[in-house]
Amino acid sequence: MYFLLILFFGSIIGISFLVGKKIILLRKGNTKMDDDFRVDMPDLKELKYITINNVRRHGYNITVKTVRTYVLFSSFVKNKYKDAKAVLNDIKTKYIPEKERELKEESSKFLKMISEYKHKIRKIKHQIKKEEGIE
């Protein structure tokens, strides 16, 4: 959504720049408009080669920056979550009596099955990370 808005306003600014340039020329008395606008372009094969190389290079750079941003952001969120959890546990121990903390409601069988499944998956992940030497 934001990308489309940026493109829209960018095109409006570009169009207003072009129209403003023509109006300034007309006010100065330059009534003859030159429609002969030539651009030197390379051959199509050379243009295709340049385009493909630029797309590959920029695509790789964008991919690397995206992955780097994801890793840094997930690490930041993980650290902040740990800090917030520690603060909340301190508040919990300070204001909630010990008797109330020990009381736990029994959950349904479905939730217990889901919880057991999550624990099994967590153990498998931990075992794989241990075998691969990650973390």
Q: What characteristic shape results from the CA principal axes? A: elongated
Number of helices: 4
- Cα-based radius of gyration, to the nearest Å: 31 Å
Tally of DSSP β-strands: 0
* Helix proportion range: over 70%
Order of helices and strands: HHHH
Structural class: mainly alpha
Largest beta-sheet characterization:
none
**Percent in strands:** under 5%
Tell me, rounded to a whole number, the average pLDDT: 82
* Distance linking N and C termini: 38 Å
**Poorly predicted residue ranges:** none
Description:
- With 135 residues, the chain is mainly α.
- The chain has a domain at 1-38.
- It contains four helices and no strands.
- The protein is elongated and about 90 Å long.
- The chain starts with a helix and ends with a helix.
- The mean pLDDT is 82.
In a nutshell, what does this entry contain?
Helix content is 79%, strand content 0%.
